[in-house]
Design a protein that fits this description.
By secondary structure, this protein is mostly helical. Helix content is 76%, strand content 0%. The transhydrogenation between NADH and NADP is coupled to respiration and ATP hydrolysis and functions as a proton pump across the membrane.
Length: 101
Amino acid sequence: MSALTQALWVLLLGSLLGLELIGKVPPTLHTPLMSGANAISGITVLASLTLIAQANDQLPLLVLGSLSLGFALFNVVGGFLVTDRMLAMFSRKSPRTGGTR
């Protein structure tokens, strides 16, 4: 079995397992779980930067590293924005002070 075939099997089985596990998570935990998973994408950012640094002017590796870096950064920033929005829902709003308008 070639390395590509093995990698595709791992991707397929990992995707099915992830789909099964996420389907069993209660709706109240989806946002915190997603935010934590998006923060873990920081590891993907480091791996992408390592790939780009070691590409040695090989165009396919540079393209793959750049794409993975873009998607990982999008995931990290989106995760933190969702977390910030979620935490804002739980903050207390301060009462208005001052006179009439």
